[in-house]
Amino acid sequence: MTTQNLTDPFQIGDLVKIRNSGYGRARIVELRGALGPKGARVYRVQVRRKPRPAYIEVLEEQLEAVLPGH
Amino acid sequence: MLLSGHFQGFCRDLYSECSQICAAAVPAGLLTTVQAQFASELKLNISNPTVENIRKDFERFGLLLDLASADPANPIRVTHLGHLNFWRNAVAHQKATPPPAGVPPVLVLADIQAWRASCTGFATFLDDIMHHELLRILGAAPW
C-alpha cells in the first residue's frame, strides 16, 4: 500500500462520490499511487453493495468529496 | 514474506496501470463500468502472486498467458515462484509440516537470492508482454 501523503487531496477514510456513475457514497481505502494515464493519481474506493462491499480503482479527477452527514 | 509481498505489489501495480490505460480509451460514460469490471474479484488484491493468480488476472486483457512456455527462462522462474509462495505461507501461517519434495527444506540466502532474480525476470517479462498487448489493443505505445 502506498504511504499516505498529507498533501494528497483525499485521505484514507474520506467519503467521496464517483462522478458519472451509479454508485452512491464511497470511501477512500487506499492511495494506489500515480498509476493513471500521464501519472494521474489512482485511488481504491469501497462502495456499498449487498451482500459484500465492492472495490473500484478510479482516477482522482473522477472523485468529488462528500461532506459527512450528506 | 517481504519478497513475496514486493512481487505481489509489482504485479498489482502493473495490472492497475494497464487497466487504467485501457479504461481511459472508452467513452466517459463507460469509464466507471470498465474500471469496476477490471477491479472485480481481482486475485492479486487478496491472494499470493502465484502463476495461476497472475494468469487469471492478466488474461482479462484478452491474451493467453502461458507463463511456463512463453520464455525459455520462465520454467525455472515458475519453480522458484512456487517455492517462494510455499515458504511465504509456511512462515506466515507457522506451518510445522516439512516442505514437499523439490522445495528447499531450509531457507538459505542463496535460494532467496535466486527467487528474487526470478521475480525480477518475471517482472521484466510481464512488463514486456503487457506493453505488447496494450499496443495491440490501443494501437499506441502505452508507456
Count of alpha/pi helices of chain A: 0
Q: How would you classify the quaternary structure?
A: heterodimer
In helices, the fraction of residues of chain B equals: 55-70%
User: What distance lies between the first and last C-alpha atoms of chain B, to the nearest angstrom?
Assistant: 30 Å
* Share of helix of chain A, binned: under 10%
Q: What class would the helix/strand composition of chain A place it in? A: mainly beta
Give helix and strand order of chain B, one letter per element, not per position.
HHHHHH
Task: Describe the sheet with the most strands of chain B.
Answer: none
Total individual domains of chain B: 1
Question: What does the radius of gyration of chain B come to?
Answer: 17 Å
Mean pLDDT of chain A: 89
Q: Please indicate the percent range of residues of chain B in DSSP E strands (runs of 2 or more).
A: under 5%
What does this structure look like?
The complex is a heterodimer of chains A (70) and B (143). Chain A has no helices and five strands. Chain A is mainly beta and 70 residues long. Chain A has one domain. Chain A is globular, with a radius of gyration of 12 Å. The model of chain B has no long low-confidence stretch (mean pLDDT 94). By secondary structure, chain B is an all-alpha fold. Helix content of chain B is 64%, strand content 0%. Chain B has one domain. At the A-B interface, strand 4 of A face helix 1 and helix 2 of B.
